[in-house]
Amino acid sequence: RLKIIQITSGSRELDKILEGGIETGSITELYGEFCSGKTQLIHLPSKCLSCCFILPEGGGEGKALYIDAENTFRPQRLLQIAERFGLNGEDVLENIAYAGAYNTDHQSKFLLVEASMMVETRLALMIFFRSLQKIADEFGVAVVITNQVVAQVDGSAVFAGPQIKRTGGNIMSHATTRRLSFRKGRGEERICKVISATCLAEAEARFQISAQGVTD
Ligand code: ADP
Question: Closest Cα to residue 111, out of 139, 144, 147, 135?
Fold first, then answer.
């Protein structure tokens, strides 16, 4: 088996409750309401920048593949965050393979969206996650999925994605190795809570979103 690497999130508090950061060989699900920080987290460190850092700096010494189903990828944002780490913007962008998959033509080209098109039944969704887990295991990839939830009047939350809504989120909770919930605090503060993870305590961490991305 490939060695498991922890990739820093950019926030020490967040890394602490994750016991290092976003890990390779696992599927991490980030869920929370709109603007709770999910996209910022994958923009910055964990996926697109720090996975290219050298290992002693909390990086993965690798490359990122950003599969964008909602047109949320912002290269300008990455360049802005790259400055914080003194990274050359062009190098950073070269380390990121981008797959925009927001129309049916694009979708058919990519595994993730291809699978989501097939996901009409619970079974298909389970198969999809199993193959994602296989990719994570075999190639030592850290898979991170964002999932938007909409708060209900009664205080409960429903998942916004159509496939997820149909299955009530159960498949996701069984298929992902680490589930992290995100919510807004005061101002720029965001709160991340470990919801379920085999080896992590149910701790909370507070972090900020600034021009530099995710910070303490
Ligand atoms: P979601 O959970 O919907 O994916 P995001 O991760 O996109 O939400 O978080 C959006 C928040 O990120 C905004 O409310 C804003 O506070 C913050 N943000 C985005 N870009 C910047 C920036 N350049 N400087 C400071 N804060 C930013």
Answer: 135
Both tokens of 196, joined, read 């379920």
Query: To test ligand 1's pocket by mutation, which of 41, 208, 209 has the most ligand atoms within 8 angstroms of CB?
Result: 209
Q: Is ipTM over 0.90?
A: yes
Give me ligand 1 centre to Cα 102, in Å: 21
Q: Read off the pLDDT of residues 20-70 as tens digits, 9 standing for 90 and up.
A: 888 888 888 888 888 888 888 776 644 445 555 555 555 666 677 777 777
pLDDT per position as a tens digit, 124-172: 667 777 888 888 888 888 888 887 776 655 655 555 543 333 334 455 5
Residue 183 is which amino acid?
Answer: R
CA of 92 to the centre of ligand 1 (A): 20
CA of 30 to the centre of ligand 1 (A): 14
Q: Which residue's CA is the closest to the ligand 1 atom numbered 8?
A: 35
Phi and psi for 84 in degrees, rounded to 5?
-55, -35
Residue 196 CA to ligand 1 center (angstroms) comes to 25
Distance in angstroms (rounded) separating the CA atoms of residues 78 and 91: 11
